[in-house]
């Protein structure tokens, strides 16, 4: 029975493989954290695309109901000569176009839901429940410096550092392999009693201690391995500056998008939508009362309806863009971003008013053009 133990290689040779493996395990763990941030951003983007399709369907359904009611009003006025068949056909065309857009909502939702299921990684998951209410618009409650400083704590940077440390541990082991090594060996042999009596050392077991000194002759391979590992560590660390610059630029882009969409949502809700609603209701009331007839009156009413629908769809798209940008900002920062309800006052705007006779003439001119 024998045993040998290497004493002269030093701790670097024995510890380096363990350290390299530990650093690579840490790098893998931090990469999982980074993937979680990417997944959260992609799921948010897919979710709000589904929500946007749902909101568009709600608005189209409301406009279709109004258009069908308008068609009945115009058709009833044909009998008394206050409207023509062409007016009825124009309103019917508008209703048919809205119905066509409504039919496209279901396929569009299926496509967006498939993207959402792909983002969350499960085709057999239940159908996602998408609320039709408007999400809140928030402003960033943290300073720009705090967001930029958070980049230093990104899990990808920890992964890069762990990977570089693993290569440095391999270089340390390669350098230690170039030094002489000492091995101590111990052999024990059980001999047992001799068959003849009077034998010197009868029954004593043999014990041998040996020393082996190993001197590397060609260390060029170990030197090259150490140099290659150090170069790989330097190359890995060089990625830090590049990704940090990209992330800080992305923070500026997403912050600007969040601020712009918040301001535009306030403009739509405080000014554009109320004005479009007031114009449409005024046109509809005059048409129902018979004060506005003919092709020009119907065209002006349909134009007001188109503006109202378009502004509502734009407002919803800005809501979705705002929330997608918020998720992208949190992905870049590497943590949730503090936000506050946007309580800033919108710019003062004149109250919406019903169109006057001059406005009507101007609208008729636009339709004629």
Could you describe the 3D structure shown?
It is a single chain. Helix content is 69%, strand content 8%. It has 369 residues and is mainly α. Residues 8-14 and 343-369 have low confidence and may be disordered. The chain is elongated. The longest helix has 69 residues, at 10-78. The protein has helices spanning 10-78, 85-103, 105-120, 144-150, 155-176, 220-288, 294-333, 357-368, and strands spanning 2-6, 138-140, 181-189, 206-214, 339-341. The strands form 2 sheets. A 3-stranded antiparallel beta sheet has the order 1-3-4, with no helix packed on it. A two-stranded antiparallel ribbon has the order 2-5.
Map the helices and strands.
Layout: E1 2-6, H1 10-78, H2 85-103, H3 105-120, E2 138-140, H4 144-150, H5 155-176, E3 181-189, E4 206-214, H6 220-288, H7 294-333, E5 339-341, H8 357-368
Antiparallel strand pairs: 1-3, 2-5, 3-4
Helix pairs in contact: 1-2, 1-3, 1-5, 1-7, 2-7, 5-6, 6-7, 7-8
């Amino acid at each position: 029975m024998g045993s040998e133990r290497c004493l002269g290689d030093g701790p670097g040779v024995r510890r380096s493989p363990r350290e390299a493996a530990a650093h690579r395990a840490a790098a893998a763990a931090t990469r999982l954290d980074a993937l979680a941030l990417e997944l959260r951003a992609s799921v948010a983007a897919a979710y709000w695309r589904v929500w946007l399709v749902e909101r568009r369907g709600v608005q189209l359904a409301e406009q279709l109901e109004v258009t069908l009611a308008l068609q009945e009003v115009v058709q009833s006025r044909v009998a008394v000569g206050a409207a023509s068949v062409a007016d009825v056909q124009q309103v019917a065309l508008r209703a048919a176009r809205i119905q066509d857009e409504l039919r496209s909502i279901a396929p569009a939702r299926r496509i967006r839901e498939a993207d959402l299921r792909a983002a969350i990684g499960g085709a057999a998951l239940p159908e996602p429940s998408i609320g039709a209410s408007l999400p809140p618009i928030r402003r960033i409650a943290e300073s720009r410096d705090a967001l930029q400083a958070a980049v230093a704590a990104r899990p990808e940077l920890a992964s890069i550092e762990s990977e570089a440390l693993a290569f440095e541990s391999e270089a340390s082991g390669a350098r230690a392999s170039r030094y002489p090594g000492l091995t101590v060996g111990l052999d024990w042999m059980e001999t047992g009693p001799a068959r003849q009596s009077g034998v010197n050392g009868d029954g004593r077991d043999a014990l041998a201690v040996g020393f082996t000194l190993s001197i590397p002759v060609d260390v060029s391979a170990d030197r090259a391995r150490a140099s290659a590992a150090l170069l790989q560590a330097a190359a890995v660390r060089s990625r830090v500056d590049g990704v940090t610059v990209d992330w800080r630029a992305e923070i500026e882009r997403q912050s600007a998008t969040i601020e712009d969409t918040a301001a535009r949502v306030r403009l739509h809700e405080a000014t554009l939508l109320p004005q479009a609603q007031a114009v449409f209701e005024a046109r509809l009331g005059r048409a129902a009362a018979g004060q506005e007839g003919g092709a020009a009156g119907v065209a002006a009413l349909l134009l007001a309806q188109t503006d109202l629908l378009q502004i509502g769809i734009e407002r919803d798209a800005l809501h979705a863009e705002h929330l997608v940008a918020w998720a992208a900002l949190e992905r870049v920062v590497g943590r949730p971003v503090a936000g506050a309800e946007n309580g800033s006052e919108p710019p003062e705007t004149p109250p919406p008013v019903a169109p006057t006779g001059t406005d009507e003439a101007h609208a008729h001119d636009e339709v004629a053009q």
